[in-house]
Amino acid sequence: MKIEPRQAEAFLKKPDPKIRAVVIYGNDDGLVAERAMQLAKTVCADLQDPFRVIDIAGDTLKHDPARLADEFSAMSLMGGRRVIRVRPAGEESVKALENLVEATAGDALIVIEGGNLTPRSGLRVLAETESCLAAMPCYMDSAEALEGLVESSARAQGLNVDADALDWIVERLGGDRGQTRSEVDKLLLYKAGDDAKTITLDDAMAVLGDTAAIGIDNVVAATFSGQLVALDRALDRVFAEGGNPVQLVRSLQRHADQLHLVSGHVSRGGNLEAAMFKARGLPRGGPVRQRFEQHLRSWPLPRLSAALTRILDAELECKSTDMPDEAIARRLCLALASAAKPSRPQR
């Protein structure tokens, strides 16, 4: 059985009692871990309980494929339903899962944390096709999902989020749920002793305005300016500091969207200042404004349209291929920076 993304939250709150094991997989390690923990806690609230919670490594099942079915059938010495956590798990766990399907008795819940399993993965196929198993995909959050997560987390603490602050926060959050949770929790802790019940842009910048975000801004600037040497240095710094490749790709997309909006407005005879006002978050003056105007001159509309297509393709690659996200982001930046360089006049 495959659990669709829209069904995930309901399933995590009340798992189908007929399901013996759930394989949770995807390229968002933080979301995989979060959902596995949430699912396990529906059986046992204390995941440190040695009598009701069993941890098994996938490699262990490779050498002892009967163990999973044995644990499924075993009873807790202290009473209560048991949960069996298998992590990390891959193709070495397929035989153990097959044995679990054939088991005749047992009521434990098996929670399996897989990696970024491909559609041809035996573990994933088995979980999707057997009626007593389930597969739950976990892919990196979209901007809409990040907005929902930030707003719901704030509401739970009795807080609101200004629209400008929400845009700025989402811009700087990566696609990994674990990192996102950490950053949002940091922001909520910052507001805990504040009488003001609204998270402002100043609050967000005070907590999340870190060097990683600044480094990504430098990458975007070098990319659209066609500065290859500066780009190489900025990329090295961002990834050395743990920068998120998907966050970088989305920052490139946002800048290209802003350029496209302003350029399109001006090309139809509109006023530059009015167009800049419509594109939220753009500077009103200073060197950043000057650089944006230089990008407008370097990126005519057809070139921007091609760039946006290339950026969307890169984000799709991050979500659907086994190629390292950092390699995809580096290749994208290099391609865009090369396109930004003005063509030499023909002789």
Task: Provide a descriptive summary of the structure in words.
The chain is an alpha/beta fold and 347 residues long. The chain folds into three domains: 5-137, Rossmann fold (3-Layer(aba) Sandwich); 143-208, Helicase, Ruva Protein, domain 3, CATH 1.10.8; 211-340, Zinc Finger, Delta Prime, domain 3 (Up-down Bundle). It has helices at 5-13, 29-40, 58-63, 67-73, 94-102, 122-129, 143-156, 163-172, 177-191, 201-208, 211-225, 228-240, 245-267, 272-278, 286-298, 301-320, 325-340; strands at 21-25, 53-56, 83-89, 109-114, 133-137, 160-161, 198-199. The chain has a five-stranded parallel sheet, sandwiched between helices. It has a two-stranded parallel sheet with strand order 6-7. Helix 5 (94-102) links the parallel strand 3 (83-89) and strand 4. Helix 8 (163-172) packs parallel to helix 10 (201-208) and helix 13 runs antiparallel to helix 14. The termini are far apart.
